[in-house]
Amino acid sequence: VQLQASGGGSVQAGGSLRLSCAALGSTFRSYAMGWFRQAPGKEREFVAGVSRIGGYTAYEDSVKGRCTISRDDAKNTVYLQMSTLNPEDTAVYYCAARSVGLIARTTQQYEYWGRGTLVTVSS
Fold first, then answer.
1. Alpha-carbon gap, residue 46 to 15, rounded angstroms
2. Of the candidates 74, 69, 62, 75, which has an alpha carbon nearest to the alpha carbon of residue 103?
3. Which of 48, 52, 78, 115 could make an SS bond with 69 (beta carbons 3.0 to 4.6 A apart)?
4. How many C-beta atoms surround the C-beta of residue 30 within 10 A?
């Protein structure tokens, strides 16, 4: 599956953004999806994940209550709605897919990656 993330941009602290990740391929609904981010000089980290069929979600502690991951299988798209952004959220955000339908929190567990989209939050 090919993934293409979009929706990044520059916002001020307290603002919101919605990231989208469009998947090319007819088997999107069979994949668990995840969002990761990588800040300058840091390792890529898990942000949020959604299981196949969308019944279960998981979040990294620092984004709980501020981010919502969702998927629209009819559109082959997964979203990450982010609010109350702060400068620590500045990073390149990546979407990823794994053929096992359960959520995973490590990069090694995802087989497919899209190019990132940059989110910059200014104070």
1. 21
2. 69
3. 48
4. 15
